[in-house]
Write the C-alpha cells for this entry.
Amino acid sequence: MNVEESTLRGSQPNTDNSHVLAWVEEQARLCQPAHIHWCDGSVAEKRAFEEEAVAKGILIRLNAEKFPGCFYHRSNPNDVARVEQSTFICTRNEDDAGPTNNWVSPKLMYARLRELTEGAMRGRTLYVVPYLMGPAGSPMTKVGVELTDSIYVVLSMRIMARMGKVAWDHLGDSDDFSRGLHCLLDVHPDRRFICHFPQDNSIISVGSGYGGNVLLGKKCLALRLGSWLARDEGWMAEHMLLLGVEAPDGRKSFIAAAFPSQCGKTNFAMMVPPARYVGWRIWTVGDDIAWMRPGPDGRLWAINPEAGYFGVAPGTNGRTNPNAMQLIKRDTIFTNVALKPDGTVWWEGHDDPAPSECLDWQGRPWTPASGEKAAHPNSRFTAPMENNPMLAPEVTDPQGVPLEAIIFGGRRATTVPLVFEAFNWSHGVFLGATMGSETTAAATGQVGQVRRDPMAMLPFCGYNMGRYFRHWFDMRKSIPFPPRIFNVNWFRQGADGKFLWPGFGDNMRVLQWILGRCQGRIGANEAALGWVPRWEDFDLTDLPEIDRARFDELQAMNPDEWRREILSHDELFMRLYQHLPKELIFQRELLVARL
Ligand code: SAT
Ligand code: MN
C-alpha cells in the first residue's frame, strides 16, 4: 500500500512544457486542490486509482472471475445524460455559435465559471490528465489536457483516449493543446455548465460527472472544438462510426456512418454478418467519432480519434452485438446498470433473464415485480478498444483509412426508406443536412420526438450550423474522388407498430448493396429521393419474412409524407437562413419538382 499511497498523495510534474506548467499552476491557484497528481498513464497508476476509487465507494469491484478488471459506478440520479440546455459555445460573436447552440459571451461565462470554480477543489486532488485524440504519430492527432477532480473521469479517460506520457511526448514544448477544466462541484443541475471556448481552444465543464459532459476528449474536444478546428484547417470532425468490410478475397472497404446518439452506431460498427456471408468480416475502426481529411490520392481518409467505447448497455446482447458482449467482459467500467448479488451486471435486453433480485441503477433493491427499469436507459459501458475481437488493425495507422461511402441515418418510424443513394455529393449533403431523428435517452428531455439533427451533429457542432453546411459543400473541391453518400433507416415500422427490418447482423445486406453501388457492380432505379435498390439486386436469402410486399413497404416513398417532411425541413432552414448555402435551397426545389 505504501507505494500506492505515495502515488496518490500528489506528484511532481512529469513534463517540462512551460505552457502546461504555467496553465496548471494558474488553474490550481483558482481551484485550490490539496494535491496535484500528474498522470503518467501507467498500469501501476491505474491500479492505484482503482484501489482508491473502491476505498472511497466511487467504484465497486465486480466479480473477479466473471468480470476481471471490471468496475461498477453509479452517477448522481440527477446526472445521467448529456444536458443540451447547459451546453454552451462561447464565441466573441454570437453569430459564430449560430442559432442551434446556446451562446454566452466568453467574458460573462468566464466570470460566472470563475466564481463557481474558485476553491472548488479544496481538500481534493486535482488530476492532470494529458491525452491524445488520434494515434500517436498521426498528423491528424490533437493533444488535450484535462484537469479534473474526479477519479472516475481519470479512469474513464484512460480507457477512452491514449492517456499519459504518450501525450507529453507528442506535445513536446508546443503550446498547441486543448485546455480542459472539469470540477464536479456539488453535482447540482443549477450549477451544471458545459462550456466551450473555441477561440481559446478550451473547455470548462462543471457540476456533472456524466460521460459526454466530462470526458472532455470526446464530444467537447473531438466534436465541438474539433469541428471548429476542422473548418479552419480544411478537414472534417464528424459524429460517425468507421468500419471496414472485408470480402472473401481479402479486399477491405471502409465506410463512415452518422447516426444520432443511441441509434445503433456501436452495434453497426461491430456487426457480425449473417452465416450465409461466408468469408465476409466486419472490422471496427471507431464507433462514435471520425476525423476525416483529403489524402494526397484525392480520396477522403479518416481516423478514429478515440481509444475506447462509451456504449449504451440496454439492448446489448449476444444477438444485437456479440463482439461487444465479448469485449466488455474485461477492463470495463459499467455506469448506471443493475448490480446482481454475485457481483455481475444486468440490463434490460441482456441475454440473461431478469435476476430475481438485484440493486437497480440507483442502488435500490429491485425485483422483476418492481415495475421500473433496473438499468437506466442511458446506462453505459466504458471499455478499451483493444478488447474488441474485431478491432481493425488500421485503427493505429497514422494515415487512417480511405472511405468509399458515407451513410446518414436517423431513427424514423415512418417516411424514410430502408436505403437509398444520393445522386451526388451536393445531394448527399442535403440528405445529411435535413436528417431527422426521434430523440433518445442520450440527452435529458423528451424521448421519441422527431427533430432535425443535421449529420447527427446538432448537439455537437461547435459553430454556426449554416457555415458547417457550407464547409461540407466546400470540402468537395479538395476531394476529387469523394465517397458516395447514402441514407438508411433501420427503424421503419409497419401498421402494427413493429419494426419492418430485422436490423443488426442483417444490416450486412444493406452494406452489400451500398458496396455494390460504390464499386459499380450493381445498378439501381432512379427515384424521387435518389437511387433505390432493385428487388433483384438486394440479397434477402434466408430472410423469408422480407417478401416482395414487405420490401416494397420498407422502400416505399409516400408523397404526402414527404411533402410534410420537406415542410419540416423549413423550420431548420429558417433558423439558419442567414448562412444557409443556396445549394440546399436548390436541392430542396429539385426534390419538390421530382415529387
Ligand atoms: O453521452 S455521450 O455524449 O458521451 C454519448 C452520446 O450521446 O453520443
Ligand atoms: Mn455519440
Notes: The pocket of manganese (II) ion (ligand 2) is lined by residues 239, 261, 288 (CB under 6 Å). The chain has 17 helices and 30 strands. The chain has three domains: 3-57+83-233, 238-307+391-594, 309-387. The CA atoms of residues 540 and 546 lie 7 Å apart.
